Amino acid sequence: MRTTKTLSITLPPEMLARAAEMARREHRTMSELVREALREYERKNWWAEMNAFGQAKAAERGLTEPDVERAVHEVRRERASRDPKPTA
Known about the structure:
Layout: H1 13-25, H2 30-60, H3 65-82
């Protein structure tokens, strides 16, 4: 049984030419290039959603951006003091 599906898309000729050139330069197939673009798109959207979620939660609690930055810095400092990096 196939684990992939075929997708047909339309692109303006200039965009197709740029994509083909990128694929050629990177020794990749067009499918690999499109998969990579979709993964990157998903990653960016995930971070945007997490950022919006965090902003909403901070607003609910009346926290300002400096309050959040300070809290993040404190947590990172506490973690660093508990889990020091090994020296070489």
